Amino acid sequence: TQLLEQSPQFLSIQEGENLTVYCNSSSVFSSLQWYRQEPGEGPVLLVTVVTGGEVKKLKRLTFQFGDARKDSSLHITAAQPGDTGLYLCAGEEAAGNKLTFGGGTRVLVKP
Amino acid sequence: DAGVIQSPRHEVTEMGQEVTLRCKPISGHNSLFWYRQTMMRGLELLIYFNNNVPIDDSGMPEDRFSAKMPNASFSTLKIQPSEPRDSAVYFCASTGTDNYGYTFGSGTRLTVV
Lengths: 111, 113
Known about the structure:
The complex is a heterodimer.
Chain A: E1 5-7, E2 10-14, E3 19-24, E4 31-37, E5 44-49, E6 55-58, E7 61-65, E8 71-76, E9 85-92, E10 99-101, E11 105-110
Chain B: E1 5-7, E2 10-13, E3 19-24, E4 31-38, E5 42-50, E6 53-56, E7 65-71, E8 74-79, E9 88-95, E10 103-104, E11 108-112
Parallel strand pairs in B: 2-11
Antiparallel strand pairs in B: 1-3, 3-8, 4-5, 4-9, 5-6, 7-8, 9-10, 9-11
């Protein structure tokens, strides 16, 4: 089983501050996905990164896939209360489309 | 598209009772996944289907759990008999051949008392 570790587990910041969430594994993934989950709802896909070293931007969110395709990071610039939620990374195994999820990082952005 | 539809949203049942959770994937998606989420263990894959065929059920905790996908538009997860430790949020997700991420349902919050 390929494991994904996320850090930190919990992050509380003030509106306007920046934050970074990390997702690490000893295994190589064919792709890595980031999801955000709000209370009472299922996770919602934010981005998929496929190529080692790839960087994708989604407004104030920047996602990076490590060169070796074992790790990823999510950086949020000037966080807003609407960014509050559980952020999950998920790695896709080479064979098939089965995803393994990390434990999640709970982000709280205070106004 | 209405997205992945799960029912019921909430289920409270007594220990020993049978519980059936239902899922309707997005039309055209050929893969369906059942996950369980708890605070302690996060999101755990229970079973997944490709083209209605179970591919990997290694995450199903015990024989008390079973899942079926009789056609491309419907799947069930059954727990019989249920136990308090089965209390969790159960999610269904689907994805298509382009495999651009999963679409999750809103989940079923199961409480076994």
